[in-house]
Amino acid sequence: MLLGVDVGGTFTDAVLVVGGRVVSAKAPSTPADQSLGVLAAISAALERAGSSAAEVTAFCHGMTVATNALLEGRGVPTALVITEGFTDIVELGRQNRPELYRLCATRPAPLVGAQLRFPAPERMTPDGPLRALTEAECRALARRVAGAGVESVGVTLLHSYRHPEHELELRNALAEEAPDVHVSLSHEVVGTFREYERAATTEVDAALSPLLGRYLRRLEQRGATAGLPEPAIMQSNGGLIDVASAADHASWTVLSGPAGGAAGAAFAAVAAGAPDVLCFDMGGTSCDVCVVDGGEVREQSAGEIAGRPLALPMLAVHTVGAGGGSIAWRDPGGALRVGPRSAGADPGPACYGRGGTEATVTDANLMLGYLAADAPLAGGVALDRERAERAIATLAAELGLAPLDCAEGIIEVANAEMTRALRVVTVQRGVDPRRFALLAFGGAGPLHAAAIADQLGITRIVCPRASGVLAALGLVISPRRRDVQRSVFLSGPALSAAAVSAIVAELGERARRALGEPEAALGATYELRYRGQAFELAIRGSTTPALGELREAFEREHDDRYGYRDAEQKLELVTIRVSATVPGAELELTAAGAPPIQRGRRAATLAGAELELEVVRGAPSPGTEIAGPAVVELAEATLLVPPLWSGSVDEAGTIMLERPR
């Protein structure tokens, strides 16, 4: 029995998989202590399955502890130790502005203030020490840091990605002078060059790791008391690691939640025979989008979260603040806006009846008839239509609109925001969205899928039966993974197959050792550029690459990205990244065991017109035909099928819709 639990901003989802059967449950998230919501969701799923915690053989977990702390700029008291003369590097950043046309826009403030940045009297070059760090200086520096009263220390020294000796000496000294303080070393957290991005990532890792560690220890203890196995934690790269490694390196888990959704989407897409999909995960608080091409989620070598760079491999997921709980409001110019502020799990949308009074996307969907007041949401949340109407009427009066027009406006504005997010990962990256299907999931995603597909020119929609808990399902089937990377700067005669293979072998051994799996499969990524360029392109390749094949793959990608290639230009291999992976569970989902569906009808407003929707309540069996206008009320999500859209259900219970071109 396999267990996956994903924590969202509004709901916590639990999935139990026994054979091909999926049993799921939701519970309201508990932001003050997410582990309480996790245990509540697990308890509900076990009760629904008629099982006990002792039967669970694997427990996989994705959460938002590090994400929320980073978004809020919150961390434990932290010190930074940086090479003398470079202590302000995180605050200085790079010369590019956050927004080109807003001169007043600023970057987020550093997590570590100037008074807690300590200069290290050392200087390392790419070839070795220029100024050695003596034992006496190292000890004195460690005592100064220990006297600052911090809980965590980040150490970022110049060129430590190649020569980590001074960082290791500092860790040993800090272990003696301040044994209870967490220490993050940049060569272990990141391992690549570019001192600003490495320092900023190490700062995030140091500030957030004690917070995450406390949460994971609580979860582990409560889980053990309940009889659950130790959880494996989802990383931003789409792979699972052990609790201790995650607690030591919170920066690796910043996209933990969205990564589970992307993994589940890729699995569902391949199972449905549609390996090329745009993934659209709309929950209660946010919307995550990504591209699955050929059954694999696109990755990136680094990213930016909440304005802070993270120089770590991660899935190429883009997030916007548009979810079912996103609050609609009137801006100073009198325009209707939606999000990014959310009603969250507490108090939630007005229709939840828990004290919320502001109109949200969920309230609009209820008022327009897409959700039913007599059909509780997953997690046992009952909907109150009158409260939704009051909240929307209040906003409508501020805007000078009729309440129904205001509700439709809320949906249109939210759809526009999510469409813009999908354009970021497609059109803005040279990808034509029309060649993909749209895979909609999350509790609210299928409600908005058709409208967004229409705006992008997409004619196919894929809605898995488990769409409301697909992120939790994705955790179950995700591999265990550990990445190790190093900047090598090889070009000319130094760039040889023998040199590359030797480095790959060394990094692969480190990755396997860190994963605790000596036989783990290895994969390699090579970041290459033409000599003299400022940035690289990541190319996947063999662990024993032929240089001709690497060059051809790089030039093909370069031509696709920038419109040209230069066969005469020298090539430079900047960074090598090796991943050790152990495959996740192999599942074959079935549609068996679902109770018969119920059919009915209800009035709704769609595109300004009053019409009657066919209501399909329950999980339709394989072969069931569905034609719009209709809504399909699945266990944890609702699918809206407008006129012109129609389709059927496949053998795994996935609903496949199409619209004429």
Topology of this protein?
Elements: E1 2-7, E2 11-18, E3 21-28, H1 34-49, E4 58-62, H2 65-71, E5 78-83, H3 89-92, E6 117-120, E7 123-125, E8 128-131, H4 135-146, E9 152-156, H5 165-177, E10 182-185, H6 186-189, H7 195-226, E11 231-234, E12 240-241, H8 243-248, H9 256-271, E13 277-282, E14 287-293, E15 296-297, E16 299-300, E17 303-305, E18 308-310, E19 314-315, E20 318-320, E21 326-330, E22 336-342, H10 361-367, H11 385-399, H12 403-425, E23 437-441, H13 445-456, E24 460-463, H14 470-477, E25 480-491, H15 497-515, E26 521-530, E27 537-541, H16 547-562, E28 571-582, E29 598-606, E30 609-617, E31 625-627, E32 630-633, E33 638-641, E34 646-649, E35 655-658
Parallel strand pairs: 1-4, 4-11, 5-6, 5-9, 9-10, 13-23, 23-24, 30-32
Antiparallel strand pairs: 1-2, 2-3, 7-8, 11-12, 13-14, 14-15, 14-20, 16-19, 17-18, 21-22, 24-35, 25-28, 26-27, 26-28, 29-30, 31-34, 32-33, 34-35
